[in-house]
């Protein structure tokens, strides 16, 4: 144990004897580790932010909106509009390819007031299973139920931002709001789900769809009495919308008298396809950023090997003296090996700590500040890659120069100036 600490002492003295060279060498490795962790962490932040933004909409949600029917495929002139109806929603509900479906009738022109405030929130007539198909956490009270639908009750569930505007600093449950001169009783409020400026779903007020159709139907010529603005569904097969999409297109095409193969006739937003696209983009980004970081780390490792070889060359006479006074090949090998490994280990530790520090600062400054972006964070596989790379670099930086030093002939080493 004593000889090991003697070796470490010699290693530290050798490092301190060339402070500037040791610093620049360590900086190369530290910068490589820092670059690898931060670059991949940035990609992970973008990926996580996009997933959270999609998650606030719901999981495996496909939204079908009112569309227009082209006269011919890929032709955008003379298109005939159509409105989705509750009949479409009922027919889609019976499809085996669908595990959940809900209808929504939304309008943004109604005006809502309470005793303490007012707003022009998005008024949405929906069904009780809206919170199952979509994601809408409840803060207080309850959401709409089947009896509300059957009796066309004048009750409302208020999302978080609208509740704050209508009842600032006050409980909303049981209170009354006026929507275009019609009184509604508040039966529940929602938790915040928006991020940054994306607060669309936090600005909604939900009422029974039957009440919405009675009091606030869609306006226009030749619009069915049960017309709605969207149908939202979850495919039976998770994370796969192909079979469900074909079945839903078939129902809508049949009900509205057009060929369902005319894809231009459908106006859809699909979280499954969006998630796949986002995953592909950010996987490519991870590979690119990771490659840049690994290359930077590799250059730092080459620098350490080169510096250690220079150190062996400069200390040729020292090696000769050590051998002449009885130092074994193993002792010399250990000294240079530990010197290379120590330089690499300290450099890597500095790089990891620096990346942790900058990421902590970015998380404090940017969390929930930029929609669709989360601050960078340490990604486990990059930390493992950096650790493995550092181990290999340390062994290479110490073992190869150390073996050259240990193989020197003491007489030849003493002859060199």
Short synopsis of the structure:
It contains 13 helices and 14 strands.
- Beta-strand percent range: 15-25%
**Rounded average pLDDT:** 80
Helix percentage range:
40-55%
Give the H and E element order. Answer: HHEEEHEEEEHEHEHEEEHEHEHHHHH
Can you offer a commentary on this structure?
The chain is an alpha+beta fold. The chain has two domains: 2-55 and 276-415, no CATH class; 71-261, no CATH class. It is built from 13 helices and 14 strands. The protein has helices at 2-17, 19-55, 86-93, 130-133, 146-150, 160-166, 209-215, 242-256, 271-314, 316-324, 329-366, 380-406, 410-415; strands at residues 62-65, 67-69, 80-82, 98-107, 112-113, 118-119, 122-126, 138-141, 155-158, 176-179, 182-190, 204-208, 230-235, 267-270. Strands 1, 4, 5, 6, 7, 8, 9, 10, 11, 12, 13 and 14 form a twelve-stranded mixed beta sheet that branches. Strands 2-3 form a two-stranded antiparallel ribbon. Helix 9 packs antiparallel against helix 11. The protein is elongated, with a radius of gyration of 34 Å. The two termini are 34 Å apart. 37% of the residues are buried. The model has no long low-confidence stretch (mean pLDDT 80).
């Amino acid at each position: 144990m004593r000889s090991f600490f003697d070796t470490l002492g010699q290693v530290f003295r050798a490092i301190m004897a060339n402070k500037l060279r040791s610093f620049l060498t360590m900086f190369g490795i530290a910068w490589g580790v820092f670059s690898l962790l931060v670059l991949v962490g940035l990609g992970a932040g973008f990926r996580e932010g996009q997933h959270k933004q999609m998650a606030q909409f719901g999981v495996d949600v496909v939204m079908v909106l009112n569309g227009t029917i082209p006269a011919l495929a890929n032709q955008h002139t003379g298109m005939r509009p159509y409105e989705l109806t509750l009949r479409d929603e009922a027919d889609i509900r019976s499809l085996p390819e669908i595990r959940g479906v809900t209808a929504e009738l939304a309008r943004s022109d109604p005006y809502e007031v309470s005793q303490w405030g007012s707003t022009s929130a998005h008024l949405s007539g929906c069904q009780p299973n809206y919170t199952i198909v979509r994601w809408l956490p409840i803060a207080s009270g309850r959401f709409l139920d089947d009896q509300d639908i059957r009796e066309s009750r004048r009750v409302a569930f208020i999302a978080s931002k609208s509740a704050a505007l209508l009842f600032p600093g006050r409980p909303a449950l049981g209170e009354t709001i006026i929507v275009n001169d019609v009184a509604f009783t508040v039966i529940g409020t929602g938790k915040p789900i928006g991020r940054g400026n994306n607060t669309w779903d936090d600005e909604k007020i939900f009422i029974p769809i039957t009440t919405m159709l009675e009091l606030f139907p869609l306006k226009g010529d030749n619009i069915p009495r049960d017309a709605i603005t969207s149908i939202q569904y979850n495919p039976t097969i998770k994370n796969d919308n192909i079979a469900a999409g074909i079945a839903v297109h078939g129902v809508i095409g049949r009900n509205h008298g057009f060929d369902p193969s005319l894809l231009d006739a459908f106006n859809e937003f699909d979280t499954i396809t969006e998630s796949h696209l986002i995953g592909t983009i950010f996987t490519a980004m991870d590979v690119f950023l990771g490659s840049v970081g690994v290359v930077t780390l590799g250059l730092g490792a080459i620098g350490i090997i080169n510096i250690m070889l220079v150190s062996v060359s400069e200390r040729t006479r020292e090696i000769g003296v050590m051998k002449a006074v009885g130092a074994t090949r193993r002792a010399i090998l250990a000294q240079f090996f530990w010197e290379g490994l120590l330089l690499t280990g300290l450099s890597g530790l500095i790089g990891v700590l620096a990346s942790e520090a900058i990421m902590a600062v970015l998380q404090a400054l940017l969390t929930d500040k930029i929609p669709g972006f989360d601050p960078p964070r340490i990604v486990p596989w990059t930390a493992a890659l950096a650790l493995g790379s550092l181990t290999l670099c340390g062994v290479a930086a110490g073992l190869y120069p150390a073996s050259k030093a240990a193989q020197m002939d003491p007489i030849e080493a003493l002859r060199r100036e």
